[in-house]
Amino acid sequence: MSRTVYVNGEYLPEADAKISIFDRGFLMADGVYEVTSVLDGKLLDFAGHSKRLARSLGELDMALPIEMDDLLEVHRELVRLNDINEGMIYLQVTRGAPSDRDFAFPDPDETPSTIVLFTQNKPGLADTPVAKKGIKVISIEDIRWGRRDIKTIQLLYPSMGKMMAKKAGVDDAWMVEDGMVTEGTSNNAYIVKNGKIITRHLGTEILAGITRNAVLRFAEEAQMTVEERSFTIAEAQDADEAFVTSASTFVMPVVEIDGAQVGAGVPGPVAVRLREIYLEESRKAAI
Ligand code: PLP
Predict the structure, then answer these.
(1) What tens digit of pLDDT does each residue of 183-203 get?
(2) Which stretches of the chain score pLDDT less than 50?
(3) Ligand 1 centroid vs 247 CA: distance in angstroms?
């Protein structure tokens, strides 16, 4: 079934949606994005995603070509038009399409930003069997640029990381900089030791995950101890549990790191419990 997508104010069949070859997203990865999950036909943490979108745009001096309030309606309309019960909404804003390629930013009064949204239908997203088994990761060097706190569309290195993982016969990669884990290719990384949840502190080195924010809040509400600091791969291999979080995988247990089994080699109780709480609370608050 062909999707209905949203491009610069119009709802169109995906085959009719067109972007200029001069779009700076296409030529220069000059854009930002958000992925919001849908469960029971409702949006998870829309407020968190729109707040981070506004921040990413602000950091790059880029304008949002739509009112924030209208953005919620576009998300909801796409869910309705595409009949999404479980899945994701992808949103991308780029610095638009000037009349020619140039490194300098175009004048925003002459070149409006481009906005695109589309749905990804994923029945069974919440109840995936992968979460019952957990995932395996390898470590790779983190050679991305220094502003990872901005959710830009420059995803070449994370894509290469996923391919390195695939080649190694595992599911994902954790990136390491100066001996410390930064994050997964498309998720935040955590370990659990003696009941304490450890995850890297926020900064320009990692993306402030919307799921991370919610999960840490739920963990504290459930009287779990959280420590925000960096950790090494060796510490992670020696941990009782490991897991990752992202908008589309929620809380996903990690059972192997660089070939070493983590804990008992099966999803640990903290990750399993946090996944349950996250899904339950997010569903309740979904709009
Ligand atoms: N870190 C990176 C590099 C990501 O790409 C993502 C999500 O795509 C995350 C963390 C998790 O962020 P969120 O929980 O907002 O999906």
Answers:
(1) 999 999 999 999 999 999 999
(2) none
(3) 7
- At residue 179, what is the residue type? G
Nearest atom of ligand 1 to the alpha carbon of 206:
1
pLDDT at 69: 87
Count the Cβ atoms, other than its own, within 10 Å of residue 208.
15
Query: Best of 246, 275, 282 to mutate for ligand 1, by most ligand atoms within 8 A of CB?
Result: 246
Three-state secondary structure readout of 81-106 = HCCCCCEEEEEEEECCCCCCCCCCCC
User: 221, 179, 228: which is closest to 202 by C-alpha?
Assistant: 228
At the second CATH level, the architecture of 130-285 is: Alpha-Beta Barrel (3.20)
The predicted pLDDT at position 182 comes to 98
Q: Where are the beta strands (DSSP E) in the chain?
A: 4-7, 10-13, 31-39, 42-43, 87-94, 114-121, 135-141, 172-177, 180-184, 188-193, 196-199, 225-228, 241-246, 250-257, 260-261
Amino acid 68: pLDDT: 86
Q: How far is residue 274's CA from residue 271's CA, in Å, rounded to a whole number?
A: 5
What number of residues does the chain have? 287
Q: What is the position in ligand 1's atom list of the atom closest to the CA of 248?
A: 16
Q: What is the pLDDT of residue 228?
A: 98
| Per-residue pLDDT, 31 | 98
Asked: is 4-121 a CATH 3.30.70.1130 domain? The reply is no
Q: Where are the domains of the chain?
A: 4-121, 130-285
Q: Which residues are catalytic?
A: 151
